[in-house]
Amino acid sequence: MADTINVPNLDCLDQSELRELAKHLLALSRYASQKAHAMDLRSSGKIKLALYAEEILDKRYQALPTEWRW
């Protein structure tokens, strides 16, 4: 797991900030889930399906806020 995760104090955010943060966290969650799925596909020898899943991953990665990309 990551060494550090900067989680803001949610009690200090207004409604619009909470919604924006939730949108980005959901995108990150979907990326992580899709990444695990693609890895499962590769390890089970389903390379074509893994490549398709990885294409989706690339799009999800680009949708992340730039400060959340690695």
Helix-residue proportion: 55-70%
The N- and C-terminal alpha carbons lie at a distance of 14 Å
Describe the main β-sheet briefly: none
> Strand-residue fraction?
under 5%
SSE-based structural type: mainly alpha
Rg for CA atoms: 15 Å
Indicate the low-confidence ranges by residue numbers.
Answer: none
Give the SSE order as H and E letters: HH
Topology, pairings included?
Blueprint: H1 15-43, H2 47-63
Helix pairs in contact: 1-2
Identify the notable features of this structure and list them briefly.
70 residues; mainly alpha
Fold and architecture overview:
The chain has a domain at 29-70. 66% of the residues lie in helices and 0% in strands. The chain has helices at 15-43, 47-63.
Give a short overview:
Helix content is 66%, strand content 0%. The chain is mostly helical. The longest helix is centred in the middle third of the chain and has 29 residues, at 15-43.
